Request: fold
Amino acid sequence: MIRIATGYGKKPSVGGFETFSWYFFRVSGIVLIFMVIIHLIVMHATTDVACTTYDFVAIRYENPLWRLYDWVLLTLSLLHGMNGLRIVIDDYVHTRGARLALMSTMGVLTLAFFMLGTITLITFPYAPANLGAVCLPH
Amino acid sequence: MWSWLLHRVSGLGILLFLLIHIVDVSLLGFGPAVYDDGIAIFDQVIVRLLSLALVAAVLFHGFNGIRIMVIDFWKRGVAYQALMFVVALVISVVGFLPFAYFILQPVIPFLQTHATSLIR
Reply:
């Protein structure tokens, strides 16, 4: 059974969602360090950000592995970040109503952003035509 | 305490950017003209400077995260936590410098003109 800290009653010390969350932070964190630094190098160092245009994405997404890479990056970073926000809310908001409102808003937002990102990755056309100059004109 | 505060603030800042970034990437669905208009914002000098803040936040959050894991899983981790905080900061700064160069390099002429006009 998934238990979520409500701030009321005994805190789950062994097992439950909080322990899973603790491990998830660390496991996703290790993976994210590598994936995010590679993402930064590709988008800011080996390519200037002004050259990360639609055509750049089109060329990159001809390889489905880059789509998978970006989807894993999306999923892990969103869950890691939103779980962090959950801890912050847990630390500072103590009234039951506000906690319920913030936590449920956060849950809906997580799902909405996850779906928006996933739909963008899946629906991007495979090998679109009209690939021209990649960099933005200055 | 400073490492805890920096970790929390950098984490929330990165999350804010992540949400913005998911939306700006979703402009891909509206075709090249719309998406490239969005990317043009990242080409702005002021947004490049904001990108530097993001890179700094990401590097610190990552390296301090490693420090947290070492404290958690290594018996003697706690004894070295203060030293490891300094190490995390140093590695972050060292890693930040090449990114700062690559991100600012295309706008160096712009920055030079405005810096010299300020000095005059």
Observations:
- Chain B has a mean pLDDT of 92.
- Chain B has one domain: 2-119.
- The longest helix of chain B spans residues 45-73.
- The interface with chain A takes residues 8, 11-12, 14-15, 18-19, 22-23, 25-26, 28-29, 31-32, 35-36, 39-40, 42-43, 48, 51, 55, 58-59, 62, 65-66, 69, 72, 95, 98-99, 102-103, 105-106 of chain B (CB under 8 Å).
